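Why do we bother with a discrete structure alphabet at all? Because it lets us treat a fold like text: something you can write down, compare, and reason about line by line. To make this less abstract, here is a complete entry for Choline transporter-like protein. Read it the way you would read a sentence in a foreign language you are learning: slowly, and without expecting to understand everything at once.
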Amino acid sequence: MAKKRQEEENPNSEYGELTSAVGVLRGSAFRCTDIICCILFLLVIIGYIVVGVLAWIYGDPRDILYARNSTGWFCGVGPNKDRPNLLYFDILKCATSVNVMASVLNGFQCPTTQVCVKECPSDFWAVKIQSYLPGEKPANVFNPNYCVPSLNLNSSNLVSYKWCLKESILVTLLVLGRCFPDITALGNIPLYFANVPGLPASVNDTVALIKNGTGFNAKDIATRIFADFASSWPWIILGLVIAMLVSLLFLLLLRFTAPVMVWVLIIGVLAAGAYGIWHCAWEYINYKQNSATITTIGFTTNFQSYLEVQETWLAFLIILCIVEGILLLTLIFLRTRILIAIALIQESSKAISYMMSTLLYPVVTFVLLVVCVAYWGATALYLATSGSPTYKVVALNSTMNDCSSIDGTKNCDPLNFTSSDYPNCPSASCIFINYNSTDTFRKNLQYLHIYNVVAFLWCVNFVIALGQCTLAGAFASYYWAFEKPSGIPMFPLFGGFIRSLRYHLGSLAFGALILTLVQIMRLILEYIDQKTRGSQNSCVRFILCCLKCCLWCLEKFIKFINRNAYIMIAIYGKNFCVSAKNAFQLLMRNVIRVVVLDKVTDLLLFFGKLMVVGGVGVLSFFFFSGRIKLPGSSFRSENLNYYWMPIITVALGSYLIAHGFFSVYNMCVDTLFLCFLEDLERNDGSAERPYFMSKGLMKILNKSNKIQKKQKAKD
């Protein structure tokens, strides 16, 4: 059947085509695929660039990067260039305000006066003198650094405290350009602050902790951690280099150690099961005289009592015997497929040793993903801050009867606004609310945000697809080289990258688009769940949970199909749908081999990651904790404040490095496996259609090339 299918699909295939640069590239190999999707993707990219330009023109990210005072001016920019920090006169109003202005402000501003200051207050009292006589000049009472800049302090009348800060809530701490109460300040906290009306109990508890001196200094901890990194960064880099070398060495040695490691791990699993059976039998015999049973114990949260019952160990014994029997039968009947999986793993290690540049490609993928994330973040930031600012007249103290007429709907100009326009409401102010949403750009802003997210997901999935197709092209060129390594083309990785971009851009974009649509459905479902969570009953929650699970499984399945479709695209150069169909049918015809290879590879790579991360992590622990000291080194572990921070950094970095290396290896195994299956179905070992698999694989399958037999006979 395989030969018949081969003749129907390509009756004129020749041996020379199989030895081309990328292997089995026939007919349509160097032809652009999925042109419509390619054009659509390029148009989306162009539109994405246009959206970014429009966001850059209309956006103003200073609202995120810089704080605004009550009049809408930025701190640290323009007239407030020397005053980069924002000070709240009454920070408690931000947390306790529940008046009508909460719905008007929409979370953009606190109903309290805010001024830009050079430095955050370091003392409780912000006035020069705490008691004053009537008629005292404001300049002699208030600190001009903590007053509204437009205020004339040389006036003969004492100004309202609304325009100048009388006292600071606490010694303030600078956080993201804002002056917030410093909860670590232990001195001179007024007693009346300990129980402020309207504050949640947790805040009062925090104040009590401060007064008792049990707070912690986050800034000091961050400073110490930064100092630890500054003194240990050369050794952290050395640890990451060691992780890279160990990962590389592990992959290269798999060509020699894979059989031993696989069989040792398999025997270890069987031995662990045998020990479990023996232990359960031993416990069963020990509790044989115990009169307690499951029925007499009943339901209890004390699980230890169940372990003292004979029936429990009997159930464990039966389960372990069944599992052990299944494993033994699987090992007996699938031993040939396990040998094939081991041979493919060895062949993958050999392929990587001939193309070491493939191990560096994850760096290219990482850089492209960083570019996508940075562009998406910058575009979202500019879109969120686009439009002209809107200012409205609000009453900072709306509880006053004379301020009831101010409802926060009247626009104002902060540069020309004066409180004298509202003599009956001295707390009236002109403050920034949000950005204007009446122009055409702002009316369609939500659609631009959606476009930004969709284009971002499509670009990210395309970058990943490009990496998979590039690596598949490189490894396929290795497999379909009849003479290895002399038959491998020059620069196989670069060739695979160029072919993917030049001929298969549309196919990669097509696969990425399908995955993007599934991810968008998951995002929409998550959004619906978040918006309706308060009104959901158990039935709705169950349905949403099932839908989430189904979409998650669908996404995993699409990723599996896409990955193998990209491999077939790299081999044959056909469009996405044909490649996905052929790959899926090929895998389903060899489903047992797929499962065995997948599990054996996962077992080896898991052991490899465990060895790399665990080994380097333990080594870094002994070094940074001072248990290992290098002679002549100036580094001293005693100088570290928190020695576990470098250890965590090295361990996390080692995992990322190992994951990057092993992802390339996993792609190599998958590519060679599909090539191997195609080789079995399309070739028969004759001179016209010889096998391209390694001699080890042919030996396992009892196959050989006739041309090789003739050559041996001549010799």
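What the structure line is telling us, in plain words: The chain is about 60% helix and 5% strand. The first strand starts at residue 85 and ends at 88.
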